[in-house]
Amino acid sequence: MSRIVLKPIPVPDKVTVNVEHSLVTVSGQKGELKQNIHRNLSLVQEDGRITISRPNNQRHNRSQHGLARTLISNMVVGVTEGHVKALEIHGVGYRAAAQGQTLTLYVGYSHPVEIVAPEGVSFEVPAPEKGQALTIFVRGIDKAMVGQVAADIRKVRKPDPYKGKGVRYKGEVVRLRPGKRAGK
């Protein structure tokens, strides 16, 4: 059994958490997030900490307990620090540019691919250092949305298993396959 649900969620001073029925609202200096949790769970907020409890140990209640704890914890982190996903572009001539809320990718197609950031998500493309891959940072307060936008960017040009070219997560290991001539 996971014991993460037993840990209380620390709430910083500048963050306010409101619970109405099953709707949890977390607001902080970076914004406000809302999330519905299962109606069987109960939240108690005291001494700058939130604890979640379930009525019994049925399988469904246990899974909802862990899910709610993680979602609320991610919301607290999002409104205080924010979430970041980093992607790398590998390939000769592959590049990216961020202009406002639009990310433009040049990744080997006959046309540039433009991705518009949804509300609450921003792109950053710093100049790469010599010998380093181009890095794209996806930033936002909602962890699920940041992860989805990063997955959509990666989907534009997945890493090629033979040459390693494409868009990948920072730190992702791409195992290269041998070509046809490797067997001879």
Architecture overview:
With 184 residues, this protein is an alpha+beta fold. The chain has two domains: 4-80, Outer Surface Protein A, domain 3, CATH 3.90.930; 83-169, Ribosomal protein L6 (Outer Surface Protein A, domain 3, Alpha-Beta Complex), CATH 3.90.930. Helix content is 20%, strand content 35%. It has helices at residues 59-80, 143-156, and strands spanning 9-10, 16-20, 23-27, 32-36, 42-46, 49-53, 83-90, 95-99, 102-106, 113-116, 121-124, 134-140, 166-169. A four-stranded antiparallel sheet has the order 11-12-7-13, covered by helices on one side. A three-stranded antiparallel sheet has the order 1-6-5. A three-stranded antiparallel sheet has the order 2-3-4, covered by helices on one side. The chain is elongated. The model has no long low-confidence stretch (mean pLDDT 92).
CATH architecture of the largest domain: Alpha-Beta Complex
Principal-axis shape:
elongated
N/C terminus separation: 51 Å
Q: Look at the structure and give the mean pLDDT.
A: 92
Tell me the fraction of residues in β-strands, as a range.
25-35%
CATH class of the largest domain: Alpha Beta
Order of helices and strands: EEEEEEHEEEEEEHE
For the largest beta sheet, what order do the strands appear in spatially?
A: 11-12-7-13
Q: Main β-sheet: number of strands, strand sense, barrel status?
A: 4 strands, antiparallel
Give the helix tally: 2
Q: What's the CATH H-level superfamily name of the largest domain? A: Ribosomal protein L6
Q: Can you give the helix content as a percent range? A: 10-25%
Extended strand count: 13
Would you tell me the structural class of the helices and strands?
alpha+beta
